[in-house]
Amino acid sequence: MTNLLIALCCALFVLSPASGLNPLYGTGDALVQAQTAYFERWGVIPRDLWAGHPAAWLAPLTALFVHGSWLHLLGNALFLHVFGGMTEARMGRTAYTVFYVVTGYLALLGYATAHAASGQTLVGASGSISGVLGAFLYLFPRARVTSLLPFLFFLPLRFPAWAVLLFWFALQWLAAQRDPAGPGVAYLAHVIGFALGFLYAWARHRPATVEVTRANAPATEGESQP
Q1: What interhelical angle do 161-177 and 126-139 show, nearest 10?
Q2: Using CA atoms, how far apart are residues 142 and 145, in angstroms rounded to an integer?
Q3: Which helix (H) or strand (E) holds 158?
Q4: For 222, how many CA atoms within 13 A lie in the half-sphere containing its CB?
Q5: Does residue 224 have a pLDDT over 60?
Q6: Comparing C-alpha atoms, which of 203, 144, 135, 130 is closest to residue 173?
Q7: What is the rounded CA–CA span in Å between residue 14 and residue 24?
Q8: Over the stretch 160-212, which tens digit does the pLDDT of each residue have?
Q9: Are the C-beta atoms of 107 and 128 separated by less than 8 Å?
Q10: What is the rounded CA–CA span in Å between residue 180 and residue 147?
Q11: What predicted TM-score, i.e. pTM, was given to this entire model?
Q12: Among 87-96, 113-122, 197-206, 211-220, which is the least confidently predicted range?
């Protein structure tokens, strides 16, 4: 499902006016108008969500598969590729798919609640992917993650997942404190998605407390590396 979700987001983006590749939407002002209409049609506009329009409640679902730019799409696809496969393997395909959709929906809904008067359009799978990161932190805290650090000339280094993901979460949290609810990145949706993902993994996959003897104690389960 991880690969299918990535492929679906990529295909929808390429076919949409957001990519600028589909000649059906024209160029120049016509393309800009088509992009604006596209985001308003399929994205979340908080003030519309709370204005009593029933159809607006579908927007957090459709917005999960809409991306605003190539950078937005490729960044989300990279994070989902790195952290999604192992999370899916642990949760199971069906549970993972439901988790991905529900977490993303709630993350967007949470952002819309905090910025109920905003007229800015919110799109992207970042809430869902943040949920995957939160779940990964609980499920595989000691897995090693390769990171590229700009201040070290993008030298690839491997760090424990807990260090990478907690650092990422801290950055999102700090950025959310300055979130103006205007154009840009919806950091609060990232924070909500991450927290929901971690809590779900903790509630669903925490080990049961059982009495075992030393002789028949199960071996510790190893962790793969993304």
Answers
A1: 140
A2: 9
A3: strand 155-160
A4: 2
A5: no
A6: 130
A7: 12
A8: 777 778 777 787 777 777 765 555 577 888 899 999 999 999 998 877 544 44
A9: yes
A10: 29
A11: 0.80
A12: 211-220
Query: So what's the pLDDT on residue 165?
Result: 82
Q: How far is CA 13 from CA 5, 64, 74, 212, in A?
A: 12, 12, 11, 52
Give the number of other Cβ atoms within 10 Å of residue 184's Cβ.
10
Give a three-class secondary structure readout of the chain. CHHHHHHHHHHHHHHCHHHCCCHHHCCHHHHHHHHHHHHHHHCECHHHHCCCCHHHHHHHHHHHHCCCCHHHHHHHHHHHHHHHHHHHHHHCHHHHHHHHHHHHHHHHHHHHHHCCCCCCCECCCHHHHHHHHHHHHHHCCCCEEEEEEHHHCCEEEEEEHHHHHHHHHHHHHHHHHCCCCCCCCCHHHHHHHHHHHHHHHHHHHCCCCCCCCCCCCCCCCCCCCC
Between CA 49 and CA 146 the distance in angstroms is 39
Specify the residue for token string 């809430």: 127
For residue 192, give both structure tokens.
């909500």
Structure tokens at 224: 């793969």
